[in-house]
Automatic annotation (TrEMBL):
Cofactor: Mg(2+)
Active site positions, chain numbering: D127
Underlying gene: pfkA
The name this protein goes by in its record: ATP-dependent 6-phosphofructokinase
Pathway in which the depicted protein is active: Carbohydrate degradation; glycolysis; D-glyceraldehyde 3-phosphate and glycerone phosphate from D-glucose: step 3/4
Residues annotated as domain Phosphofructokinase: 3-275
Cellular location(s): Cytoplasm
Subunit structure, as described in the record: Homotetramer.
Alphabetized PANTHER family for the sequence: ATP-DEPENDENT 6-PHOSPHOFRUCTOKINASE, PHOSPHOFRUCTOKINASE
Species, as recorded: Salimicrobium jeotgali
Binding locations of ATP: G11, R72, C73, G102, D103, G104, S105
Amino acid sequence: MKRIGVLTSGGDAPGMNAAIRSVVRKAIYHGIEVYGINYGFQGLIDGDIRKMELGSVGDIIQRGGTMLYSARCEDFKTEEGQLKGIETLEHYGIEGLVVIGGDGSFRGAEKLTERGYPCIGVPGTIDNDIPGTDFTIGFDTALNTISEAIDKIRDTATSHERTYIIEVMGRDAGDLALWAGLADGAESVLIPEAEDTIEDVIDRLKRGNERGKRHSIIIIAEGYGSGVDFAREIEEKAKLETRVTVLGHTQRGGSPSASDRVLGSRLGAAAVDILRKGSAGRMVGIQNNEIVDHDIVEVLSQKHHIDLDMYRLSKELSI
Ligand code: ADP
């Protein structure tokens, strides 16, 4: 392979830049030219492409977001869009493509591979919702951002007798909520994968109050429901004063953690190695601290599973 491309697609995640840098430098190290495609699959359709040099990816490892920008592109879901994308790639003589993104982006990569165009997926999303990898790029940074925010909320919480509800991201996955719950000692964690009801939460709040707890922190995953609605229900049913914080897009930003920079670097390089071997339609990941790769179709057909032992632990530790 003489020339490859790289793009980031879907929701951005801190650490994507480290992955781009790694793809570019690893490829150039092996004598392969690299083209960066701006705005994900939209850029592929529009021909928004630039050649990447060693210096193009200097000074980005510490930056959040993605230097190649990202976009959602409905046109790429059509045959016409995909063929237009392949036309662009062929025009530039690009023989393989690294797609950094979430499961939606992998569906695009899979479509290209099906049409005979070799793609490799690199999991980049703060949600940690991709099967076949223990961690996705961006999850650790987002978790630390949440943790810092909750520490601050806890400071004010200790000054008032209130219940604090914090809504965190994660789409349909509860990983960010669960890990944040453990990291921050939350009284309750509500995730879509478990079936805690408002009554369970109120019972715990009441038990806490009886023990003299002056405040409580409840973390709710966006996939479970709305923090604002949940707070209203708690106020009505338990007659407790509540405050809600929806952390929103602060969770997606910021300088990537060291861990995400290392993960991005390892996975980006692994994707280049797989293309060099002549494989296609694979997703790279990390499992038990080993770099692995899986058939992307298989990844897309599986469901992400949360660690329910961790969920039980979070309950045991917040009795
Ligand atoms: P993420 O990659 O973060 O899950 P999305 O689900 O928004 O984000 O997907 C990102 C992009 O991937 C979409 O805007 C679209 O261009 C492309 N994509 C998603 N699903 C498909 C599909 N079934 N076929 C082709 N391309 C797709």
